[in-house]
Every structure is written in C-alpha cells, then in structure tokens.
Design a protein that fits this description.
Strand content: 15-25%
Distance between the termini: 20 Å
Number of strands: 15
Number of helices: 13
Radius of gyration: 21 Å
Strand order of the largest sheet: 3-2-1-4-5-6-14-15
Helix content: 25-40%
Length: about 375
C-alpha cells in the first residue's frame, strides 16, 4: 500500500502522524511511505530521519495521492481538494461539530476513520485516550498560567501558601481528560472538585484519589454552585461521536468570580460552555466573556508535539498496520476499527453524529 503523511496545517499544529520509528515499521511490512517535506520538523524529526528508515520525501500533492493518508488533525478547507475517491483517511475528525467537513468527505467518497471513534468492546477509546491524557494535564498548566495577573487573571496561585487559601479547580467530566486534569491540579496543591453523571465513575475517582478530591453528581444545581467559587473551570465531557452537550449556561459563567479562567477541552466537539462561542488558536488563545477568561484552543496537544506525536503513534500504529495489510478484511474483522468509520463510499456511517449534522445515516455493516 502507498501511505502518505502530510504536514499538518492547523494553527501551531506541530505534531506529525508518525515518527520515523513508526514509518520504519510500515516500510518493513512492505509498504511505500510518502512523507511531505518538513512534516516532522515541528516534532524535531528531520526529513533525513525519515529517509534513513525508507520513506520518500515528497510534495504535499504527492503525500495525498496515495491509498491511505495518516494525519493528526482533520482536513481543513484548503486540503479538501486533495480528497479523492478510494482514499482511506485515518486521523482525528471530531466531525459532529463540523458539517462542512462531513459533506466534503461524502462528496469525495473517502473512507474516513476517526481516531476518536475507534472503540474497544469494553467502551474504551484507545486512540483518543493518549491525547485526552495530555489535554487534561495541560488544561491545569494552562489555567494556572492565565490565572496570573500578567495574563489577565485574578492573580491566584493554585497551590496557595501557608496562611493563604489554595486555588479552587472545578472539573466537569470525570473521564480520561478529567482524571488527568485532577492529577495535575492535586499535584499543584489546588482544591479539586470533579463532577460526573456516572456514580460508578465517581466512586472509582474517590478511591483513586483517596479523599484528595470532592466528587459531585453532575446536575445543573451542583455545577452552578461549584462555579460560584471556582478559580479554574475545566470542561472535560465527552460523548463519543456526538456533539458535546451545553452544560454551563451564560448565567452560570456570569456568576463565576471575576477574572476566573475556563479551559474547555471539549471544544473539538463544540464545547460545554454556552459562552465558548468560538474556537481559538495557540497564537491568540483566550478571550473574555462575562469578565471570565476563556481558553478554547482545539489542538492543545499540538503545543507539546514531541510527547504527543510519540504517544499518539504508539496507539495508532497497530491499527494502521492492520488497515494497510488488507483494508476490507480489517474493517470486517476488527470491530473497534469498524466503529471508527465516519464515511464510506459516499455514505455517512457515524450514527451518533447523524442527528447533530442532519445527515442520513447508513449502518456501516450494510456496506462492507
């Protein structure tokens, strides 16, 4: 199979789909790998490093003119012309909040497989988890920075000092991202509250953190009450394949202390805060609504590309190797991969997002 790795063009997206070690595995499997020149530089991987392991260094057009493209982020409109019939595109899509992308994939009859939708039988999301871990940990790091007065915040140190209160962190969503946000917040010495709708999940978090966090059932009143005294609010809710629910109203944000900070990890799927009404970039990451600082960057792990690229590739490479060996067999026999299929032969196959996008849905098993 011919496999392409284009350079990411999203704002400050420095990750690359595979490091040279991953390309080496594909080459050893007998595949041809075409890496766009400069694709790995943001993650400190030179063109020479890819050539040494057997990749061809090519133009952007050549990187897309292949059987399967591996990326990190969803294609942007400038990349839509490269989509072509028969292409397997393996990347993050977060399509539930992006109808234009869904329509572009359908027009081109691309087989689109979303990392974020690949799901094991136990419900875990093996290709999303590494980036959720990173985004969760980064969210507290970033929030702590923007709480500093020089960045517009209220001037709170999350750890506090003896005689001065700790900062208060409220995490809405107790999944992988929320759990990892809590780890860092606790490590910094903050007071941490986690809200989730799953009692078993809250019980597991309570056991894991051994009383270091307050766990609350996630309902409107508990969210509103927690936000009234919080310094940093983190949105970490994920509904696989679906648009994120709006859980925090403008009135709730208005009730937060002035110059508090919101970090919405769920912005890829539309965000859970009503006041998060636009996606930001690493170049211009924040804006204010209701006197609260909002951080809504959709590719947070792109700021730590060495860590993120390697972590992502460890997860994606086994699936990529299976796809490259025999795509149809892989999609028939690997149920986790089949759940990741978003479009196939001009049909929309992601049931969870069909309603959000007002698109007709066809069960993938009827097409393969």
């Amino acid at each position: 199979m011919k496999i392409g790795i284009p350079k990411e063009i999203k704002n400050n997206e420095n990750r690359v789909a595979l490091p040279p070690s991953g390309v080496y595995e594909l080459v050893q499997d007998g595949h041809e790998v075409f890496v766009e020149t400069g694709a790995g530089l943001g993650s400190t991987f030179s063109d020479d490093a890819y050539q040494v392991v057997g990749a061809a260094i090519v133009s952007v057009e050549e990187a897309w003119a292949v059987d399967m493209v591996m990326k990190v982020k969803e294609p942007l409109p400038a990349e839509y012309p490269y989509l072509h019939e028969g292409l397997i595109l393996f990347t993050y899509f977060h399509v539930a909040a992006n109808k234009a992308l869904a329509e572009a994939l359908l027009r081109a009859k691309v087989t689109a497989i979303g990392y974020e939708n690949v799901q094991l039988d136990d419900g875990t999301l093996p290709l999303l988890s590494p980036m959720s871990e990173i985004a969760g940990r980064m969210s507290v790091q970033i929030g702590a920075q923007f709480l500093e007065k020089i960045y517009g915040g209220k001037g709170i140190l999350l750890s506090g000092v003896p005689g001065v209160r700790q900062g208060r962190v409220t995490i809405i969503g107790g999944g992988v991202a929320g759990e990892n946000a809590a780890k860092v917040a606790i490590g910094l010495g903050a007071q941490v509250t986690i809200l989730d709708v799953s009692i078993p999940r809250l019980q597991a978090l309570d056991r894991q953190f051994a009383g270091q966090v307050q766990t609350l059932y996630s309902n409107r009143l508990n969210i509103e009450t927690a936000l009234k005294t919080t310094d940093l609010a983190i949105g970490a809710v994920l509904l696989p394949g679906q648009k994120a629910p709006c859980l925090v109203t403008t009135d709730m944000v208005r009730s937060m202390p002035d110059k508090s900070v919101i970090v919405d990890i769920a912005i890829d799927q539309g965000g859970i805060f009503e006041t998060v009404d636009k996606v930001t970039t690493h170049d211009d990451p924040t804006y204010e609504r209701e006197d609260v600082i909002h951080y809504a960057v959709a590719n947070m792990p792109g700021a730590v590309p060495q860590t993120a690229t390697i972590a992502l590739s460890i997860a994606t490479l086994p699936f990529a190797r299976e796809l490259a060996q025999n795509p149809e067999k892989a999609l028939r026999s690997n149920h986790a991969l089949a759940k990741g299929v978003i479009t196939y032969d001009g049909q929309f196959t992601l049931k969870e997002a069909a309603h959000d996008l007002t698109l007709s849905y066809v069960d993938f098993t009827e097409l393969i």
